[in-house]
Amino acid sequence: MNPNNRNTLPKTRDLPMPVAAQQSYGLSEQSWKVLTEVTFPTAKTSEAILMALDYCKARKLDIFKKPVHIVPMWSAALCRNVETVWPSIMEIQTTASRTGVWAGMDRPVWGPDVTKTFTGRYKDDNEQWQESSVTVTFPEWVAVTVYRIVGGKRCAFTEEVYWLEAYSTAGGKHTQVPTAMWIKRPKGQLAKCGKAASLRAAFPEECGYAAEEMGGKTLDDIADGTVIDGSATVVNAAEADHEDRVWAGDAGVDANRVIDLSQIHPKVQKAVAELVRRTAAAGAWKAAYDYANQKFKGIDLTFALAELDKVSEVNPRATQALGQADSTAMPPLSPKEMAMTQARQALGANR
Q1: What are the pLDDT digits (tens) for 318-336?
Q2: Considering the domain boundaries, does residue 284 fall inside one?
Q3: Which secondary structure element, helix H or strand E, spans residue 139, and what is its range?
Q4: Where are the alpha helices (DSSP H) in the chain?
Q5: What is the number of domains present in the chain?
Q6: Does any domain span residue 223?
Q7: How many angstroms separate the CA atoms of 251 and 99, rounded?
Q8: Angle of helix 335-349 relative to helix 266-282, nearest 10 degrees?
Q9: Confidence of residue 288 (pLDDT cuts 50, 70, 90)
C-alpha cells in the first residue's frame, strides 16, 4: 500500500479502518471487513471496535469468536448513547473455566410462563422513535446452578433471575418495550442472564456482568448506588456503652454517623441482609458481630453493625454464639434451612 494513503484507508460499511487496526493488531482490510460486517454489524464507530480489540488482546481472546459485545448505553452526562464493551456469556464461562475449579453447570430451572403486553415507544435503526405494542410470553424466572471446587469439595451456587427485572428495553428508561432479541428469544436471553448471575456468585473475583444483562440499561444504572432509593440508616451512639466502642473501634468506625445507602454497594447490602437473616434465625449474635468485623471495613462495617443492632432485641454483643461458631464463618443455618439444603442434595443425588 502506498505510504501516502496510510491515513485514508478504504471504508467498509461506512466505518473507516483506523491506522491502529493495522499497526497495533496487524489486521488486514479483509479482517476489518469481517469485524464490521459479521462480528460487530451494529457497531456505529470504529473506536468501539478498537475497544473490543483492546479487551480481547488484554484477555488473550479470539475476537472473531465474538467473546465481547458492543452495547450502546445512554449517558445522562453527555445526553447521548455511548458505545461500551461488555463480555458475552461465553467469555464469562471462559473466565470461569480458566480458573481450573469450575465444576459444571446444571440445566436451567424455569418458573411459570407469564403473558404480558408491552406498549410504548422504541428506537428504530435510524434512531427514530416509533410507537409499538407487543405481547410476549416468557418464564417468570430462571434459576441456574453453577458448581465450583472449594476446599476439594464440589459446591453449588444458585441464583434466581426474574424476566421483568432482567429484560432489555428498546429505548432505555424511556420505554418498557423489549428489544427484538428478547421478544424473539425470551427464554434464551433469560437463561444467559441466569448463567451470568450464578457464575458471579461462584466466581465473584473473576466474573462480572454480561453484555446480555446490559442491553437497554444506562450508564447511570451501573454507577454504584443509583439503584438505591437514598434512604438512610442512623447509628444511635447514645445507647452505645464502652463495650460497643471496643467492637467498632478496632476498625476505625464512626458509630455516630448517618449512613447514606447510596454509598453502600448493592452487593454489600445483600450480604448484610443475608447475615442479619441467618443471625436472627439462629440467635448467634456474637458470631455475627465477629463475622462482620472480619468481613467489612469502613462505612460498610458501620452499616453492617447498624443493621445487626436494629434487629437484635437483647444486648447482642453479650449474647454467646450457638455452639462453637467460627468467628470468620456465617452464623449457622436454621433447622428449616438445613432441611431445605438436605432436600436439594437428595434431589441432586437422584438425577
Answers
A1: 344 333 444 445 555 555 5
A2: yes
A3: strand 129-139
A4: 19-23, 29-34, 46-59, 89-98, 163-166, 180-184, 186-202, 211-214, 242-249, 266-282, 285-295, 298-311, 335-349
A5: 3
A6: no
A7: 33
A8: 110
A9: confident
